[in-house]
Amino acid sequence: GKNLQIANRLTVGKSGTGVVNLIDQLANGDGAYVTPNEVIVGQNATGNGTLNVQGSLVEVAGAFVIGDAGTAVVNLGTSGNGMGTLYLSRVDQLVVGKQAGSNGTLNIGNGYMGTWNGSVFAPERPTPIFGDAGTATVNLTGSGAYGDFESLMRTDGAILANQVGSVANVTVVGNAAQQSFVNWHINADIDG
Length: 192
Prior knowledge:
By secondary structure, the chain is mostly beta strands. It has strands spanning about 1-5, 10, 15-25, 30-35, 40, 50-55, 55-60, 65, 70-75, 85, 95, 105-110, 110-115, 130, 135-140, 150-155, 160, 165-170, 180-185, 190.
């Protein structure tokens, strides 16, 4: 695969429009492996960022914010072939829709997003927040393609619509006809 090591932060859509595509075009397991310290998509109020991960893996050591003050979309395995993986094994902060007026969307199709490693739970890791002061949309929809990996999100609990005026919409739906199933494994309580 192609390794991209980023020493500090990957910002997509700081004040303008930014798109990052991490895609395995041949679906042969030769996708990108990206290891930033932190990721912010849609940083400032005018920022509009999109991160597409298909057949590739992003492993984040620190904060992962989808919609800091701006608009952000992160797609994991939502088009083409191959699984999109967001591995947050050492995450300090996972927030979708952080500040008031922000709008963050996380779409997981043929993908995986996790805040713990396999079946080894780590309750000391912070609980992800979907809609801190802004608006969060989280969609686990499966790929709809027969034989593809299922959608899987693993979190140590979850907080939905954390502050007054925040909004969180979480949809978990599979496609049984195509044997495309969806799972959200939660290691603690959900507040919201």
